[in-house]
Each structure stands twice: as C-alpha cells, then as structure tokens.
Design a protein that fits this description.
249 residues, elongated, 2 domains, two-stranded antiparallel ribbon
C-alpha cells in the first residue's frame, strides 16, 4: 500500500507551521519528496545485505512478522518484475537487447530463449565487456545456446539499458528491480491564489505504507535547511537516527 502524498505534505506543513517557522511550496516539497523516496529505496539494498549476514550467523530474529530481512524484501517486492527486452540495432549492424526505462535499478537473472529443435531457455552469465570479447574469440570458451553470456551498458542517448548477448537469442526476459516513480503533489490555484490539492495530477509515494513516518521526518530534515531552522533539522535527524538504530539492533 502506497503512502498518500497529500497526507505527507499536510503533515509536514502542520509541523513546520505549528510555531510559524516558515512555509514549503509545492515545488520545494515535490523536490524533497523525490529525494527522500530515493534515499529510502536505495537504503534497502545495503541494509538487506547487512541483515542477510546476520541470517548467515544465526543472529537474525526469525519470528513471524519480526524478521527485518523479510520486511525489506516485502518492501521491495512491488518493484521486482519480470520484463521483456526488445531487439535494437545500433551502428547499422550491431544488435543489442534493450529495456527503454530510466527506472531500472538493477538486473537480476537474465534468460535467453533460442527457438528450434531443441528449444533452449538458458540462464545467461554476466561478464565484463573485455571478458566478453576474449570469450567470444576463444574456441575453447566460446558461448553456446546452453551457456550464453552477456555484458551490460547504458545508452546515454535515450536511457535504454542494453544487453549484448552471445550467441544471439530469439528473445530475452530478465528479473529486474525498478526504481519508484517520483511522487508529486499536484494542485490548482484557488480564488485567492492558494494551492488546492488536485488528486488527478498527483502521484503518491510508491514506498510501503510503513515508511510514512520515515518519509515525513526525512522531509522535515530538509525543510529545516529551506526555512533555515536548525531545531527542525536536529529534531528530525535524531528521530531518524533512533529509528534506524531500533530497526537494526
């Protein structure tokens, strides 16, 4: 379940306006909201890695609903998708498989499918571009339909994610981790030029609903910079730090 962007904005405004500390415009809020959502999303990966080490050392709580490693996986679940890559030709004759999205964060397992008799759907090994060239030229290590290889590169022109695969398959699917879309608090001007919330042009936070307090506190930390109030920064930072300690202890 997503976090309602209007609820977060109104909460932030209520807190900073409670003692007439200032005001944060929709444009400022939207910028901070995107930054904070990205920070929280990116924190899942190193946190999950750290907690996985605790699992391996048998120091992680495995009680139902209290396993924080599973909690992180749950929060990431909606961003994990199986997607189809399409063929694209670059420089007239050089073919790649691509996924046209700047939202792609990481590529997991890649499956190359070769139609024929027999048909192969093969796990494709990731190698560096230099390794790809060496393996391709060697008679002993040359990739096969049962053991294909690929390297990854990003197109600077259109943000496409390119896979160079050998041997060239008929189709490619991959498990990928997608980034959340930026939240947006949309509005229409009122009769007094005030900002009136417009749900039709708004986009909620795509993080799990359990992150609502975390989102609010992190936005408040940045709001303290905008309104030049160090007490807001200090209070929000302390709450974030304490929450992080409690989650990881």
């Amino acid at each position: 379940m997503a976090v309602n962007v209007n609820t977060v904005y109104q909460t932030v405004l209520y807190i900073i306006n409670k003692e007439q500390r200032g005001y944060v415009t929709p444009a400022e809020f939207n910028s901070l909201a995107a930054q904070v959502q990205n920070e929280i999303f990116e924190s899942y990966l190193p946190d999950g890695n750290q907690l996985n080490r605790q699992n391996q050392n048998n120091t992680q709580n495995n009680t139902e609903f209290f396993n924080t490693f599973k909690d992180i996986h749950y929060k990431l679940a909606s961003f994990i998708q199986e997607v189809q890559f399409s063929i694209i030709t670059i420089n007239q004759d050089d073919q790649y498989f691509y996924y046209p999205s700047s939202q792609l964060s990481k590529i997991g397992e890649v499956i190359s499918t070769y139609i024929g008799q027999p048909k192969y759907s093969s796990i494709t090994q990731l190698v560096s571009k230099a390794e790809y060239s060496k393996i391709e030229r060697s008679k002993l290590t040359k990739p096969t339909k049962q053991h294909p290889i690929y390297y990854y590169q990003r197109s600077s022109g259109n943000g496409s994610n390119l896979l160079k695969i050998s041997p060239m398959p008929n189709s490619v699917t991959a498990n990928v981790l997608l980034k959340p879309s930026n939240p947006n608090w949309g509005f229409v001007p009122g009769s007094l030029n005030q900002y009136i919330y417009n749900a039709g042009t708004s986009r909620d936070f795509e993080l799990d609903s359990s992150e609502q307090s975390n989102i609010v506190m992190r936005i408040l930390k940045y709001c303290g910079v905008i309104i030049n109030d160090p007490t807001v920064i200090q209070s929000a930072s302390q709450d974030i730090q304490q929450t992080t300690i409690n989650e990881k202890s």
